[in-house]
Amino acid sequence: MVEPGSVDEVATLLRDASRDGLAVLPRGGGTKLDWGRPPRRADLVLSTTRLDRVLEHAWADMTATVEAGCTVARLQHALAEQGQRLACDPLWPERATIGGILATNDNGPLRARFGALRDLIIGVTLVLPDGTVAKSGGKVVKNVAGYDLPKLATGSLGTLAVITQAVFRLHPLPHETRTLTFAAPDVEPLCELALAIQGSQLAFVSLQVRAGGSVEPGLDVAFEGTRAGLDSQRDELLRLAASVTRVDPPASVWRAREALWQGTEPAVVGTFSVLPTELRAFCARLHEVGMAPPVGWRVVAQGAGVGQFRLEGAPSDVLIAALRGLRTAAERRGGTLVVLAGPEDLKARCDVWGSPGDALPLLQRVKQQLDPRGTLSPGRFVGGL
Amino acid sequence: MDPSVLDRFRGIVGGDGLLTEPEQLRTYECDGLTNFRVVPSAVLLPTSTEQVQAIVRVCYEARIPFVARGSGTGLSGGALPIADGIVISLARMNRILDVDIPNARVVVEPGVLNLSVTQAVAPNYFYAPDPSSQQVCSIGGNVAENAGGAHCLKYGFTTTHVLGLEVVLPDGSLVHLGGTTLDRPGYDLCGVFVGSEGTLGIATKVILRVVRRPAQIQTLLAAFHSTNEAGAAVSGIIAAGVLPAAIEMMDNLAIQAAEAAVHAGYPDCGGLLLVELDGPAAEVAALMGQVREICTSCGAWELRVAQSEEERAAVWKGRKAAFAAMGRISPNYIVQDGVIPRTALPAVMSEIERLSGQAGLRVANVFHAGDGNLHPLVLYDARIAGQEGRAERLAFSILELCVKAGGSITGEHGVGEEKKAFMPVMFAEPDLDTMQRVRCAFDPERLSNPTKVFPRPRLCAEKPGPYQAHPLETAGIAQLF
User: What does the pLDDT read at residue A293?
Assistant: First the structure.
């Protein structure tokens, strides 16, 4: 493992490793290193731990420049001093780094209001395997000069370049936040409610549905704003939610998806994306999958149709069959399903990523242009990239 | 152009989809930036994805460069033709293919007009990116330029609202980038394509996200003695944690022009702010109170709230007509599109004033003030010898000023033909080279709008990486194990 202390050192390391034909696995906080396929090779782990500075908080312009190895929590702490935040809520913010959440495109429920990371990042510094240090974007919120490489880097899982620095647009910390939680004996009315909320004029910031084989389904909605605004939105929401029961929000409800990584083994955690109207059908399919042979399941999904699930307590064969059924359900109307974490044998035997579609040759050419020797995380990404 | 190639084109789009007469071609010699003009060899008007593919395949085989064109309203010369190339107009591909209200998705062909999307989902939804040309500009053009507009401060740009694309690549193959659902596995090439100014291929279908119309919309007009006072109010509003749907600023010259053109009823003042808040009624009411206080404390001497749809429309009409209105006060003008960090506004404004005095030319200012996007309008008279040249130089020194202040040479109009020489002011050689490598993945033969965006072409066969070897363990930064 190497821990470079500057962008120049990252460039030197990558260039030399690439020249010597070594495979390099970039690493931030190490919380999602097992996502994707296991790389075909990893001769060198390049850790960004020492690149951990918040370089600039231009609070009056509401932007921040931060090094990739800075943890999300540390950045948020620094921004909070001026009453601001990076409006995202990824998994394990105490350990997850900025570079890591970008590479894995880990978006939490705040996305409903503030957009995904791709919408918050406005500039990036990338180091290519040949040692090229390239900046794209800038420090202003609005900018269309040149290609949008911050978006290319976001979600590329360390297979194109090492992210060393990012610039973000920021948002103010809210005056007040309020969460309302509803419960129902099964998930269907909650999915209906999620759709009704999205079709209403409520200005929610987060909206999620939780369900599982052995837990009571719940729906959580968060609002931010002034006291007067929050009161009137609560009243309107209660009118919409008349058919379900209001309950107290469970502790750490907006970190509920973190619990999907804990439970009975063996288990597999996956992520899915469906149309908002298809969330109900996907949850119903999870319920069926859990019946026979018995598989434990839990899901935490955003109203927008993206979510994560856990299948557990069954042998790999059963889990793989269940994943296949779920993927078919997701793909029925253009959705996707990706396996994030699971036993090695399971990942080796199932299709982790699903079909990349007709863009695969183009994805390959992009990889070929930026990482022609296949230095970075070879084989980890979709289509064997 | 080789008659046999023209015959092949005619075979694809029919006689009525192929223009070759000089007087027909003249219509396409420029886009909204009229000081660059090139007459293309031919213009094709396909009506389907298959036709676009077939045209591009012919271009690929014969190595004919092509430029895609929407409504031709672009302001950076992005749709400027190439003399020995063709223009592919997407104007006849103007069908709305699907409207899915429960999922807030709309699928359109590229020739559909921006405003038509909002009309298709009215009254409960709207399409958020709203460039001032929204009544005539096309979605395909918006995708190429990553078009913005007044409301992107809160709602984001075109790229925020494009979920998926069907694209004809420069070799004629068809790919689907993104889709109807979020976060599809793979590189975000949809995000790369949006704003690539026609250099990566031609979008033939666009999947858009539309937005639920908020319960309440209020627009405040605030009159200040100067743009500095108005600028201070903008900073105050943002610092208070209020995120308006839009904050627009106009200086006195811009107000005069708008008044002369559309009689928007603006107060005659040194700096006018237009602040729009939207959301739940109680929230808007509370925040509007706050915004009014901030404006007053910064020196606003008149505050007016437009509440009805008609009042709002009148207020916005003046702002959106601001560019065209310059014709009322000056025979010619150049629209610029720089971006600065908002806090640099007072310094940049006084520097613009100094430069304007030095050049002896008037500059009117219209801003998307919330996100620091300036549109200085340099006024001149082309009939007076030497003025046009001076106006161009002044416009470019304003851009340099923006970059020096930490900003960008373009916030929403694109680089196109006009600003490609300015890219090195903002980006270093490795930055541009990396972007060009991405371009080579899409368009190795450099056929798709090949002369735009980049200051010089890159041959895709060039071997990337001009580096020499260094030992891995230098400086004790690495340990291998």
Answer: 79
Q: Is the pLDDT of residue B472 over 70?
A: no
Could you please state the CATH topology (level 3) that the domain comprising A7-172 is classified under.
Answer: 3.30.465
Q: Do B63 and B34 have their domain in common?
A: yes
ipTM surpasses cut 0.90: yes
DSSP string for B137-168: -BHHHHHHHT---TTHHHH--HHHHEEEEEEE
Regarding whether B80 and B135 lie in a shared domain, the answer is: no
Nearest-angstrom CA–CA distance, B164 and B144: 13
Q: Which of B180, B183, B373 sits opposite A275 (nearest CB)?
A: B180
Lowest mean pLDDT, pick from A65-69, B370-374, B443-447:
B370-374
Structural domain contains residue B81? yes
Indicate the residue of B184, B192, B441 with minimum beta-carbon distance to A151: B192
Kind plus residue range of the DSSP H or E element containing B373: strand B373-380
The beta-carbon neighbor of A275 closest among B169, B181, B373 is B181
Overall average pLDDT of the A125-138 stretch? 97
Q: Are residues B288 and B281 in contact, defined by beta-carbon separation less than 8 angstroms?
A: no
Segment 134-173 of chain A within 8 Å of chain B by CB: 134-136, 138-149, 151-152, 154-156, 160, 171-173
Chain A CB contacts of B293 under 8 Å are none
Q: In chain B, how many domains are there?
A: 4
Q: What is the pLDDT of residues A37-57, one digit of tens each?
A: 999 999 999 999 999 999 999
Provide the CATH number for the domain around residue B25.
Answer: 3.30.43.10
pLDDT at position B463 is 56
* Residue B468: inside a domain: no
Q: Is A46 helix (H, G, I), strand (E, B) or coil?
A: strand
- The whole-number pLDDT of residue B63 equals 97
**Are the beta carbons of B437 and A151 separated by less than 8 Å?**
no
Contact B257, B364 (CB under 8 A): yes
From A130-144, B170-184, B458-472, the region with the lowest mean pLDDT: B458-472
Are B266 and B295 in the same domain? yes
Note whether B336 and B266 are same-domain residues.
no
CA distance linking residue A281 with residue A284, whole number of Å:
5
Domain A176-349 has CATH 3.40.50.720: no
Contacts of residue A119 in chain B, CB cutoff 8 Å?
A: 156, 160
**B202 has pLDDT over 70:** yes
- Say yes or no: A21 contacts chain B, CB-CB below 8 A: no
**Together in a domain, B368 and B354:** yes
Instruction: Give the tokens for residue B182.
Output: 């979020």
What is the span of the domain harbouring residue B169? 96-212
Counting one residue from chain A and one from chain B, the pairs whose CB atoms sit within 8 A come to 306
